[in-house]
Amino acid sequence: MSHLARVAPPISPMTPQAYFAFEETTPLKHEYLDGVVYAMVGATDRHNIIALNLASALRANKPAGCQVFISDMKLKVKLTAAEYYYYPDILVSCSGSDREPLFREQPVLLVEVASPSTERIDRGEKLNAYRQIDSLSEYVIVSQDRAGIEVFRRRNGWFREILNADEALVLECLGLTLSGEQIYDEVTF
């Protein structure tokens, strides 16, 4: 995920329809959290390389019918009466009925590339929101500042698995295993 500008005052509360219209008129991306819109800022080279490495491997090995998106596809999350739109770094959806042009809401896999400024949101707010998505099987947080990966899986109650740099990332929902070398290829710490 690109860094969220959560320290700056958010834009006034708006409806989802107004948010979509606003997004079409601005060069910046914004996440929508139940009427409050937050601007996002750019990402580092390491962030981009890691996200591209992961998305490329996922795209090349995805099951038939699945779609892989990187950073520009919104994720809609409905929590009770609240509605949220996030921009995960990587989103994989395998449902033929999940084909809205501006967002997806039935992902099987979500990945965030975390930085020191986003890891609290990725492990807290986003983990809490994402695990409410019925279709989601796995949520992965990849560190951009060191070789480190965290995996949260529905099948084990969203318990955090911490992988060492030499351990492979097994994405059960896609039947895919990625090495740390693949994920961190061309990244220098």
Write the layout of secondary structure elements.
Blueprint: H1 16-25, E1 30-33, E2 36-39, H2 45-61, E3 67-70, E4 74-79, E5 82-86, E6 90-93, E7 103-104, E8 107-114, H3 119-130, E9 138-143, E10 149-153, E11 160-163, E12 169-171, E13 176-178, H4 180-183
Parallel strand pairs: 4-7, 8-9
Antiparallel strand pairs: 1-2, 1-5, 3-6, 4-5, 6-8, 9-10, 10-11, 12-13
Relevant terms:
tt1808, chain A; single chain; 6-stranded mixed β-sheet; 189 residues; alpha+beta; 5-stranded mixed β-sheet; 23% helix; 4 helices; 31% strand
Description:
This protein has a domain at 44-70 and 87-183: tt1808, chain A (Alpha-Beta Complex), CATH 3.90.1570. The protein has a 6-stranded mixed β-sheet, sandwiched between helices. Helices cover 23% and strands 31% of the residues. The protein is built from 4 helices and 13 strands.
Question: Would you list the SSEs in sequence order as H and E?
Answer: HEEHEEEEEEHEEEEEH
Number of β-strand runs: 13
Structure classification? alpha+beta
CA(first)-CA(last) distance: 19 Å
Which range does the strand content fall in? 25-35%
Strand order of the largest sheet: 3-6-8-9-10-11
Number of helices: 4
User: What is the share of helical residues?
Assistant: 10-25%
CATH architectural type of the domain at 44-70 and 87-183 = Alpha-Beta Complex
Summarize it.
This protein is of the alpha+beta class. It has 4 helices and 13 strands.
